[in-house]
Amino acid sequence: MITQQNVQLKPVSRGNYLMRNVLRHNMVFSEGSKGDAAYILTEGRIEISKNFEDRKKVFAILKPISIFGEMALFLDDGVRTATAIALEDSKVIVVTRDDLDEFMRESPKVIASIITVLVARLKSTTRKAMKAPSVGLGVVRILDLFSTCGKFELKYGATVKALAETFVSTPERIEQYIHGLADQGLLAVGRDENDVRIIRIRERDMLAAVMQKQE
Q1: Could you count the other beta carbons within 10 Å of the beta carbon of residue 115?
Q2: Where are the domains of the chain?
Q3: Which residues form the Cyclic nucleotide-binding domain (predicted)?
């Protein structure tokens, strides 16, 4: 349950900036909301997360001193791409666009620090994005590994669950990929002699078959 935040003005650097007390489990901002300020964490811990296919993915646990939500200062009419929640009672300084204008006029060192944070975060995000697997291709690669090892029948439920957990996806999304492969004739979904639902892999070299169909 989100309750009203306690806020007060406190002197920060040269001016009076809003110091916000965020109680444990309360949101600083939510994914999809309009971003009009950045925050500097001075006390406590903040969790940064995002919903990915109906599941929460935690990107970072921030400790003082940390800047977050800073892209709102540089993007016009931007929306929040993540949710920030206090893991414990915390204090943050609210930095608005007007504050940024003042910083730019009077505190170039502060701007340099913000840019350094942005660059580091961009590099980290890029590395993670490059490592993030395509879920569809990942499913094919794992099924291909089974077929290469001579395993052509897999229990449907257990396979879907394992693939969903591996790729931080939903079972429904994994089932879409499996049935898509079945529509291509690369595998079949049926039942064994014990009436257990199974996946039958028809292609020994499934990866090559999928890549060939994409050409």
Answers
A1: 12
A2: 6-131, 135-214
A3: 26-121
> Which tens digits make up the pLDDT trace of 124-162?
554 554 454 578 888 888 888 888 777 889 999 999 998
Can you tell me the distance from the alpha carbon of 73 to that of 76, in angstroms, rounded to the nearest whole number? 8
SS3 sequence, 184-199? CCCEEEEECCCCCEEE
| pLDDT tens readout for residues 25-40 | 999 999 888 888 889 8
Q: Where are the beta strands (DSSP E) in the chain?
A: 6-12, 15-22, 27-29, 37-43, 46-52, 55-62, 66-68, 83-86, 90-96, 153-155, 187-191, 197-201
Which of 154, 155, 213, 204 shows the shortest CA–CA distance to 183? 213
CB-side neighbour CA atoms (13 Å) of 193: 0
Fold of the domain spanning 135-214: Arc Repressor Mutant, subunit A (1.10.10)
- 90 near 36, Cβ under 8 Å? no
Class of domain 6-131: mainly beta
Q: Same CATH fold, 135-214 and 6-131? A: no
User: Is residue 120 within 8 Å of 66, Cβ to Cβ?
Assistant: no
